[in-house]
Design a protein that fits this description.
A hairpin with a 6-residue loop joins strand 3 and strand 4. The chain has a 3-stranded antiparallel β-sheet with strand order 1-2-5. A two-stranded antiparallel ribbon has the order 3-4. The protein contains 4 helices and 5 strands; from the N terminus they run H-H-E-E-E-E-E-H-H. By secondary structure, the chain is mostly helical.
């Protein structure tokens, strides 16, 4: 029988397969932790689990026969209880239905030692499961609120972006107008610089013949006046 088969065997007695799996896991975890810590787990009528220290020693390799040194180590050990031994040996008959009758633990024997460690481990596992369930419930409650806050923040950002768009358009239009004005002023200055010399030349050309004619007329008039005298 493996672990899955063990869970199936006790599922009907504890209220379901999941409850049976949790119970088996909790019991095995408690036994392992207690033995690793150096405690002795004893179940009346069934047996006891304990940690045994093996000193360093020499052993022989069964294949080569070579002598090998084995380091000091610790190993778990299970000792079957008398009731368990009697059932296996056939001294006592195994009941056909119901649970195997084992001796009940005496009063007060579950108040300390390895049994207390087992209880603490089981309680710790149950507390951890409750905390996990509470965290899941809190996460479910807070998830919609967080989603609403995120949506509201996104809407605010969108509204701000919309408000900023007209301002940006106005700034762009103003910049374009300023650029046009600057270009126009520069063009006027360039045109004025180019047309000024041409205008001076044209004025000079226009006034030169008139000045010459006026000068000639004055000279002729002087000569005529002199002759009359």
């Amino acid at each position: 029988m493996n672990k899955a088969q063990l869970v199936e065997a006790i599922a009907d007695k504890v209220g379901g397969r999941q409850q049976a799996a949790d119970a088996v896991d909790a019991v095995l975890d408690a036994i392992v932790r207690a033995v690793v810590a150096g405690d002795r787990v004893s179940v009346t009528g069934f047996g006891s689990f304990e940690k045994v220290d093996r000193p360093a020693r020499y052993a022989r390799n069964p294949q080569t026969g070579e002598r090998v040194r084995v380091k000091k180590t610790s190993v778990p050990r299970f000792r079957a209880g008398q009731g368990f031994k009697d059932l296996v040996s056939g001294t006592k008959k195994l009941p056909k239905g119901g649970e195997v009758s084992v001796k009940k633990a005496p009063k007060g024997s579950l108040s300390g030692g390895a049994s207390a460690t087992v209880k603490k481990a089981v309680a710790k596992k149950a507390t951890t499961a409750k905390k996990a369930a509470a965290k899941t419930a809190v996460a479910k409650k807070t998830a919609p609120a967080a989603a609403k806050k995120t949506t509201a923040t996104a809407k605010r950002a969108t509204a701000t972006a919309k408000k900023a768009t007209p301002t940006a358009k106005k700034a762009t239009a103003t910049a374009k107008k300023a650029a046009v004005k600057s270009t126009t002023a520069a063009a006027k200055k360039t045109t004025a610089k180019k047309t000024a010399p041409a205008a001076k030349k044209a004025t000079a050309k226009t006034t030169a013949p008139a000045t010459k004619k006026a000068t000639a007329r004055k000279t002729t008039a002087k000569k005529t006046t002199a002759r009359k005298k």
